[in-house]
């Protein structure tokens, strides 16, 4: 009531006056002493809500009211100015506690040691302070008011429009705000909210217990959150950002470098982006940022990207998309894995699809084919082939794209047709391979003239020929072609005659050689004397010419001479009936007898006996009606000689047959050689075409190699046949040369005899040996017959034996 009355004007003072009120003062007869407490409280209220309030001192001390309409209440010294209010009680000067001070127009300072120096500022609390640059100046002449507010013990709002609320809260700078015990906002426009929160730079915001925003315009929201760096944002308990523009959102999330973004519980980002629980994007270079999106995703390299739960990009410029996808490995950069559980761990590799995996590239520069000679050669280098083989070389082409793994495969479908050229590196689709395979094949020529084209859907049919049989054997990865030659054996009978059994066929050189040898080894003749049973004389048999009475046999090398002894001894010579001597002829009984013309000697059952020293000279006349000799000492007649000639002719025929057989074998061998050469040419052509097919398309390689292998097998077979034929030809030629050497005939003369023509000659196969009867001058290997007319029947057996010996040696 006392204050109310004062307010009604009973105790007014001018702006320049000082009014002192004590406990002895009275208003309407009542003292203030009894209402001290009520008066102070009322004065405070009036100073706040009612202009022109009074200044009241309670207790010891003084109260000063300087200009304006302020109110000051204090237990000691208080100052009020221009509607300011200062309330403070001095408790103990030894602690340095001072009175409240409201030292600016409209200021309010409440609390021991509180201090307000800014216009219409407020300091509420023990040693609270609201200060600013305009704290001591200003007027009501239109200047803008920038009040600061400090609420709480030891709070400090130091700056225009600064606000500090909470014990020991600090707001230092224009427009700063700190809310909470020990909160600090240090920088123009900084805001700190929460126990021990700290916003330490202009425009920063720290919200949460022990939160820290340390960087211009940084924001930290959450207990123990930390935003360090210009514009950094940390949202969530224990979040951390360490770099300009970095962002961390979520419990324990970290953005450790400028521009980094970490969103999610326990995420970590360098300059990149990590989104998802436990996601990591750890690279620290601002120009090589990495991205990890998904729980437990990790992008641990420059410019890496990992998207998906558990996705991992391990090395530079790798990309992993999909749950548990993995891209890269140490020193294996630029890899890409797309798909859950996909894995691209090789340099530049790409794995596409669920569980796809890359492998080390197996590229090559060329491949090996056969040339016309059947030798291995390398093709021209492929376009796009590996250059150095060094996987760390960015210029080396060793990268792969995988759409499966070692056990799981995928098709690549809907592929456009790629370019087909020597320099193309385009992908080839199935239709292109079909056309390449359809038109892949080889040409067949006959003696240089085109005959046929065998494409991939064609076939080569090996058929039997007149003297050949085709045998094709299918192997594991190849086929062999064998041309068997139809052969026939040549048999030789005891007479040296050759023959074949069955149908016609080719023969081998060995068969021809055996036939010739058999013809020679099996040839024989029957040697008889005096029409006895005879003796078979074969090639390896020998004939012994034994000398008889009055006959001497001599051998000099290959020459056998049969002659009478100089002084033969005949018991007697009988002439039956008559002895006709031709006209003009003479007959000498003793000494030498000369008989001319027709001579009839002897008769039935009669013998002719010549005396010792007699000589028979027929003078080119015949001895007719000579019976076949039977004993060794019997003379032979022409019929017996003809038989011998037949044997000789048979041997000659056998040799001729062997010669013809050898010539046929030679012809057959040449034909086989020609056939082999033709097969060789065909095989080489097939080989060349197969090489072309291999170059056209890798997919055609298998078919071309099969054809190449078949052709090589045919070539090998043909070469074998050629070698066999050449060997047969050589053997046949050797045998033919032996046959063509013929056999030599030497002639000689007996005493008083003559020799017509050459004394030595060579008889070839097919030649005729003519034995001329006349003067009984028959010589085979220089067999000599002396001219004793009356002993012809004894000489002829020796002559026969000499001829047989000669024939046996042929």
From TrEMBL:
Signal sequence coordinates: none
Pfam families: YadA_head (PF05658), YadA_stalk (PF05662)
Every Trimeric autotransporter adhesin YadA-like stalk domain range: 411-449
Location of the Trimeric autotransporter adhesin YadA-like head domain: 148-169, 185-211, 213-239, 242-267, 299-325, 334-356
Annotated region described as Disordered, given as residue ranges: 1-23
Record GO cellular component, one term: outer membrane
InterPro entries in the cross-refs: Adhesin_Head_dom, Coiled_stalk_dom, Serralysin-like_metalloprot_C
Recorded superkingdom: Bacteria
Stated name of the protein: Autotransporter adhesin
Organism, as annotated: Rodentibacter pneumotropicus
